[in-house]
Every structure is written in structure tokens, then in C-alpha cells.
Amino acid sequence: MSSLQLLVQWYNKLKLTVLEVELPLIKAELESIDLQLLRAESGLTWQDQDCWSFIRITEHLVRDLACRVSGAKENCVTIQGAMKGWSKQAMFCRKDNKKGSIMQLDDRADCVSRKYSSMKKDGDFIHQLVQENMVLFHAEPASDGWQSYLEYMDEVVVEGLFSYISHSLQFFVDNMESFPNQSPLFKAQLMLDGTGMTFCPSVERDVGDSLYELVEELVGDVFKTSVNVKRVAAHLNMESYQDVMDGMVDLLDLRREIMDRVDSVLKKASEYQRKFDIYAHLWQDDRAEFLSQFLQYGRVLTTEEMETFRADVLPDNPPTIDNFKEQIDYYEDLYAEVSQLEDFRVFDGWLRVDIKFFKASLCNIIKKWSWLFKEHLLTYVTNSLDELQQFLRATVEGLNRPIAKGDHKGFLEVMSLLLAVRDRQNTTDNMFEPLRDTIILLERYGVTIPEHFYSQMEELPEKWSEAKKLALKVRHDVAPMQSVEVMVLRRRCMDFEVKQTKFRGIFRATEPFSYNATNPYIRLEKSEKAIRDMEKEVAELQESTNLFDVTIPDYRDIKLCRREITVLKELWDIVVYVQSSVENWTMTKWRQINVDQMDAELRRFAKDMRKLDKDARVWDVYTGLDLYVKNLLTSLRAVSQLQNLAIRERHWVQLIRTTQRDFFVTDNTTLGELLALQLYLFEDEVRHVVDKAVKEMAIEKVVTEISQQWASMELSYEEHYQTSVPLLTCDEELIEKLEDHQVQLQSVFLSKHVDHFLFQAVELQNQLTVADTVLMVWMEVQRTWAYLESIFKGCDDICQQLPADTHRFQAIDAEFQVCMYTPMV
Length: 825
Description:
This protein has 825 residues and is mainly alpha-helical. Helices cover 70% and strands 3% of the residues. The longest helix is centred in the middle third of the chain and has 44 residues, at 356-399.
């Protein structure tokens, strides 16, 4: 093919394939080529000497441009090919890319990191090819044509990123469809821990580490791939494509659809979890407390019963073996029911909820509940048999031991053994059959029974019968000694009766029942020790009489002493606390005390006293404390009244005269000094003085305010319209205030407490009366002057007709103006 033909082909291909966005970049070169070709068309012939030289030069220009444009296009194709590779594989996939497997999340961080690194590498490669194109086009970086080309390439990258992100999001959408035989994409495990049922990941939307948050992060990872590719059109002032992708409506719709499906499935999973709330009592209830109530009442108390009744109100009702069987059967049946629960459930075809761990934990808890009752029964059998075996061994050994003459200690030991046999006879006679039933029940539930239990159940009933026979024989043998001991015990009881009566008298005479008692705690401690000794002696008598079936007196005096000393100790505690509290108060300056707080404290003391035994109210210490508290309350009320700011020096003088107490009160006076005045004796007098002071303060306020207002009162003037002479204006407010103040002073005169302010009030009343009179005369003179002024100065005819009156008015007018211009004092 000739050079001319190649030139034509390259030129035509260039013109046909050049893109609109590329044309501005090669426009100048194309125009240069066109000028060359125009010369050939218009004037060049084959006979021209430079014809072939022209063809070679033109061929070189066209070939160079065509090759460069072709290279740029190949770079664009390479860029598009790289971006198509992104969409061949979604960012996340199922484990090992197997259709039936759960989504691969174990190496999520590595997967994301690798993808981001690959995207960054591809982004750098794209920028490299774009820079090559700038060289191929001989473009200026700041030219409009090149920036338009960059925007075109920017759109190409945006489409590539959109395709990749859309493909990755579509993976979630496709695998979250509820199709038949759809394999789950995610899984969540329902587990049971110390706080209750929990999902891993959580199905609560607004908590951390939830499934919603996980999927949201995965979708976010997909979107963030655009951050790793720098903008080709850097002049658009956007560093990456993140904002562009975040604003894509189609991508946002996919994102919203994914999260809506997650939200929907989480609600179903939460509803599924609530199905297991019926078992919540198994991990919430306290097993120890449950067993305690069951052993006491034969059942567990309801919440209403526990709130309504106290534990000592409900009658005890120990459980029977049937009650235990009922409880164990309940938990065994519950274990079978839970074991049959499904291992997992799939929601909406894509979320698998696994409950195997929950089932295992719940079954373990149920077994602990069942074993709780089995263990108690096993322990009961073990302890009952071992205790009886030890008792029989010690009893038989003790009863077979001979009693030497005069061996009182040995005799008492034998009697205690005989008493023990008698006390437990009914219980032991009836214990073997329930024990056999308990062992049979435990065997039925597969509990391993130790071999020695069976031998004990065979041997112990026979040994118990032998022990009872031995006890009857020994009782008959020691009967003479028992009779002698009974007589001795009865004499001891009579002697102690006399002793306790004497002790009671001494107790009443020596204990601090008086409010003025000194060192009460020393005496209380001494009596406490004496009562303990007496109680110990009573206990020893009680123990001895129980051995020999002797009835012991009640010894009520000792019990009464115990009750009284307990109450007396509590009462003296209150006395000391009250006295110490008041002592602290008395050091406070009387104007700084908080009377309300002290009053509340004293009333609390009085309330504590009323809670004591009613018998204590006749004691002198009680009545003394009660009177002391009442007097304090009264005195504090008086002090509170005296804190009134209306109290003046004259009131203190009046109070001293009334109470006939010589005292002087300042701000440094303490509460103790005021209490020493025994103000509770003068409550009415103090109230009267304070009431008077308050009333006088009100009078003082009225008189003072009136005096201050009139001392600063100023009259207002206006100029006469012709002569500019200042005239007093008739101020209605001033007149009303004057009248109101006179009325107030009349009310003051009617008060019985006006004596101290009588002179000041009378003087003020006189001043207001004079002011009222002066103002009335002044206004009358002013009105007359104004009338005459208009006659004698406004009409010359009248002045000529009445020359004498005119001359007289002129003298009065001069005097009036002097008065009006002269400042008033």
C-alpha cells in the first residue's frame, strides 16, 4: 500500500473515531494537517519537485497524531477493563464461596484491607494512564480542554465504582431473599449467661455489637472502597469519590432495602426469644431462698403473700415426700421438654438462629434445680442415719456404765441420757419408714445410694429397740436416787424463790429510776451482771428439773427485772443523748440558732420516749425527761419569738421588769444564758411583749414613711400665660396623698400601742394640718390674683375709671410676685 493510501486511511480513521471530548485537545494539530491537505488539493501536482517530500511530511504528521490518539484510546480501554475486573467478585462472599455456607466474617478485616489495597493500586494505575494521555495529547494541564477530558474520565471511574458497589450490595439483596431452599447468609447464637438470654451478635438494634450494626458496617465497608481511588478530576475539589457514591440514589435504595430487611428479621428474632421467657424463673430465682421457703411452708410463697404477711405470721408446713417428688418430677419433665426444642430456626431464609448453647445451658440449670431437691433428700438421709447411730452408740455406752455410790455426776449423766431417749422416742419410732421411702425415691431418679445406708437401715431399728429396753431397765434401777434428787431440787426452788424476792426489792431500791440519779450507767452495769447471775442460776435449775420431771416456778421477778433494766438502759440512753445535744446547742449564739431544727429534734426525742414500755411512764426518770423536753420546747418557742427584729431595747427593759430577772442581752448572748432564765415560766409574758413590739413596729413604719415622703415632697409650678409669674399647680395626687396620710395617722391614734410614738404622731398630724390649710389659702389667693390681673392689666378703661383700686392692686401685685419668685423654705 502506498504512503498516500496510508495517509488517507489514518486521516479518515482519526476523523471518524475521535471523541467529542478529545477533539479540543487535537484541534490545532488537525487544523494544521487540514491546511497541508488543502495545498495538495488546490495547487500540488505530481510534476512538482517537492511532491514526494510533501507527502512524506504530511504522512508523518497524520501518523503521529493518529498513533497518539489511538494510544490514548487504548489507555481508556485498559482503565475500563481494570474497573470491569472489580465487578467480577463482590466484596464479601460466603465461606469458601460455597452456596450453602454462612458468610465469611472471620477474616473480614483482612479481606477489607486487601480489597482497599487493590483498589488503591488500581486507582494509582488509572492516574498513571491518565497522565500518559495528557502527554499523548500534548495537553496543557490548566487548559479547559484537558479539564473537560479529565471530567470525562472522572465519569468513567464513577461508573466503574458504581458498578462495583452496586454488584457488592446486590449480593446482600439476592442472598436475603426468602426463597425456598435458600441457604442462610448470617447466623446468630442464643445463649444463656448470668444476666439472662443474650444473642451473639445482639438482635437489639440500638446496642453495640448487634447484627444490625454488623450489616451496617459491612455495607459501609463496601461504600468506603471509593475512598481509596483519588479523583481524576482533581480540579473539582473532591479528594475521593466517597461523596459521589453516598449521593447515588440507586445505591441508597439498595442500602435502605438491605437495612429494612435486617430490621424486619431482628424483630422476628426478638419475638422468637420472648418465646423462652416462660423459663426465665429458672435462672432468675434464688435456689437457696426457694429451698428455704419450700422446707418451711411446703411451697414457695407468692409475691403477694411475701408483701402481705410477715414470715412469722404464716404457719409452718414442712413438705412431705410427695411434695419433694412433685418438685423433682416437675423439673425432670421440664428437662425432657427443653431437650426436644429445635436446635435452630431460619428467619426470612437468610438468618439462622442457633439455640444449641441456650438449650445446653438451660438443661444444665434445670438439672441443678432437680439436684437441689435430690441432694437435700440424700443429705437428710445421711445426717439422720449418722446422727441416730452416734446417739445410740453414746446412749448405750452411757446407760451400761455402772453408777458408784455417791457418784452424783454419773447419776446426772444417766438421767440426761434417759431424758434424751424419752424426748426423741416418738420422732425416732416414726423416722424409718419415711427414710425407706426417700431412698426408694432417690433410686428411682438414678441417685447412687452408698452401700452402708442399706446396712444402717437394717441394723438401726433393732438397735433403737434395744436402747429403749435398756432405758426402761436403768430408769427402774435409779428410781430411789431420783426420788432423793427430786426432794433436793424442790428445796432449791423454794430457796431461790425467797432469793429472787429479796433481789427484786434491792433492784427497785438501787436502780437509777430517779431523773437526778448520779452515775446511772455504773449502777446499770452492776445490776445487769447481777441479773445475768440470777438468770444463769434459773437456767441451771431448769436444766436439773427437766431431768427429773419437776415443775419449776415461773420466777417472774427475775423476768421483770430483765425487762425493766432493758427499758431503763434505753431510757437513760435517750436522757444522755438529749442532754448532750442541748449542751451543744447552748453554746450557740442565740440569734444564730435554728429553732425549727431544734424543735424537730426534741419532738423526735419525745417520740422515741413514747415507744418505750408503758410501765416506764411512771418512773421519775421518764417524767423528769418528759418535763425537761416540754420546758425546752416552750423556751425555744419564746426564744424564736424574741428573735423578731421588732424587739427594741425598751422591750427588753419591759421584759426584765415583767419577769423580775436581771439580765442583759446582746448579739453575743448564748442560748444557754437565755435558757437559764427559765423562759418556759414566762411564755405568755414573752408573747405579749413580742406582740406589742410587732404592733409598735408597724406604727413606726407608718410614721416614718409619712415623715420621709413629706420631707422630700416638692411642689410643682407653671408660668402665668401673660406675666410668666410662677403659679402653684393643683396636684390631685398630692391632695389625695395628704388626705390619705391624715387618715393613716388617725388610725395610728386609735391603736393601744401608740404611746411610744404619740408625740411624733401628733407633731406630724399638726404639720399635715397646717400644710393642708396653707395650700387651700394659697390656691384661693392665687385664683383671686389671676382674676384681678386680667381686669386691671388687660383693660385700660377700667384702670381710668377706678384709679384708686388700680393703684392698690399694683401694690398687691408687686407683693404677690415677690412672694412667688422668692424660694420657699
